Amino acid sequence: MGPTGPRPCFSREIGQTGHNCRFVAASADTAGGRIESGAGKPTTVLLAEDDVLFREGLASLLAREGFAVVGQASDASELIELARERRPDLVVVDIRMPPSYSTEGLDAARTIRGEAPEVGIVVLSAYVDVEHAMELLAGGQGIAYLLKSRVTDVAEFIETLGRVARGGSVVDPALVHELVAARRRDDPLGELTDREREVLALMAEGRSNAGIARQLWVTEGTVEKHVRSILAKLPVQSSGDDHRRVLAVITFLEAR
Q: Is the pLDDT of residue 207 over 70?
């Protein structure tokens, strides 16, 4: 099944662009050639995926690319046991695994990182799940969250695995978009214009409309329009403009 939309961009420095999208990755060494993890040894990988055809195919691909696949797991419990036994450099895990197909893979990844913080974690998901992604990314460096349907370039995928094994972090651009959108939805000041933010900041300093007008070199009537707009946009339901003004300032201070 082919993906829709622009080709995803993995394993590039933050800020570079290409293939109609922005690469999003934390910095890490990107030496080419054989994937190694110190002392010239190949990077060891543990795979966890309940779809046996997908898992075997991925194992064959990684072996061809120079990784050492040290184990395969079909459920979260087996993954944790193998990780404890074989101490891989990298774990590639599906976020949803048996028996309930909810967050078993993510929970297992957290357990592994808790016991062995040096292990890189690559989570593959069929869905953009902001809440679970935030939990994963809070775990520190050496983490990646990728959408299965958007992995369309083998070379970039292999480079991503190498980056994570060396302590870098990679996030699928589709997830970044959702994270930014979620943050905007949660930001009480998100709907304010830059000028309205300036006015609100001066309100927080205790300035009157006349004082704000002098500071911004605008008329007092213009400031009053901005204040009315601010009070209409912020969740400050109260009777009386003076009290709403106070609530607006409190909202501003809490959001800083």
A: yes
Contacts of 146 (CB under 8 A, 6+ apart): 8, 10, 122, 123, 124, 125, 157, 160, 170, 172
Helices assigned H by DSSP within 87-126:
104-115
**Global pTM?**
0.60
Q: Which residue has the tokens 């993510």?
A: 106
Q: Which of 184, 211, 240 is the last residue of a domain?
A: 184
The model's pLDDT over 64-89, given as tens digits with 9 standing for 90+, comes to 999 999 999 999 999 999 999 999 99
Most confident range, picked from 52-61, 121-130, 139-148, 225-234: 52-61
What pLDDT is recorded for position 244?
72
Range of the domain at 105: 17-184
Please indicate, yes or no, whether residues 140 and 240 belong to a single structural domain of this protein: no
d(CA 31, CA 28): 9
Single residue among 184, 203, 237 that ends a domain in this structure? 184
- The reply to whether 149 and 228 lie within a common domain is no
**Backbone dihedral region for residue 130 (phi beyond 0: left; psi -120 to 50: alpha; all else: beta):** alpha
Phi and psi torsions of 221, nearest 5°: -65, -40
Q: Is residue 225 part of a domain?
A: yes
Considering its fold, how many domains does the chain have in total?
2
